[in-house]
Amino acid sequence: MDNYEIITAPNPVLKQEARPVDKVDDAIRRQMDRMLTTMYDAPGIGLAANQVGLLNRVLVMDLVTTRSEEEKPSPIFMVNPQIIYESEQMSVIDEGCLSVPEHYAEIERPAIIRVKYWDYDGKEAEIEAGDLLSHCVQHEIDHLNGVLFVDYLSSLKRNMILKKLQKLKKANIL
Ligand code: GNR
Ligand code: NI
Fold first, then answer.
1. What is the Cα–Cα distance from 93 to 85, expressed in whole angstroms?
2. Mutate to test the pocket of ligand 1, among 97, 109, 131 (most ligand atoms within 8 A of CB)
3. What confidence tens digit (pLDDT) does each residue in 15-56 have?
4. pTM of the model
5. Residue nearest ligand 1's atom 16 by CA
6. Are 139 and 44 in contact (CB under 8 A)?
7. In the beta sheet, which residues pair with residue 79?
8. Rounded to whole angstroms, how far apart are CA atoms 37 and 50?
9. Which CATH class is domain 12-170?
10. Domain boundaries, the chain
């Protein structure tokens, strides 16, 4: 199956809010399958619909980027994810983003969260996430709300990064 193209900043679609999905049907499942292969090939540990130019509340994740032949992938698919609990304790992780290539920054987020969502079959599901998974889910939900990790940095740092990316685009390097 054909992969999607990943959109990089600055691009208005990354600043837009994605709309809720009414129902998990075959079209949404095809979108999730295609987002997953796009994410694996990138490679990344998460991907939100905005990053492939689709404005619906769909995300895919898989924290394991390298697997041997025998190991089965264990993707997580979320439709209409909602954070229903955030710990007061925070954690800092060095984050990157496929839409902000080659830039990384330490981002502070609630250490543990609980998320309610619809799974691949459209069934209601709930998970508790800590560590990298917690950061990844929050990073992906931010995308669905039009927020990038660079939005947590000072405007000086953010604008420097965005200018560099814009320059690479103009030179056709991105
Ligand atoms: O591949 C990715 N790595 C990552 C590392 C720390 C916190 C979040 C992430 S998500 C990112 C892929 C991506 O851009 N998802 O939107
Ligand atoms: Ni990202």
1. 19
2. 97
3. 999 999 999 999 999 999 999 999 999 999 999 999 999 999
4. 0.96
5. 47
6. no
7. 58, 118
8. 16
9. alpha beta
10. 12-170
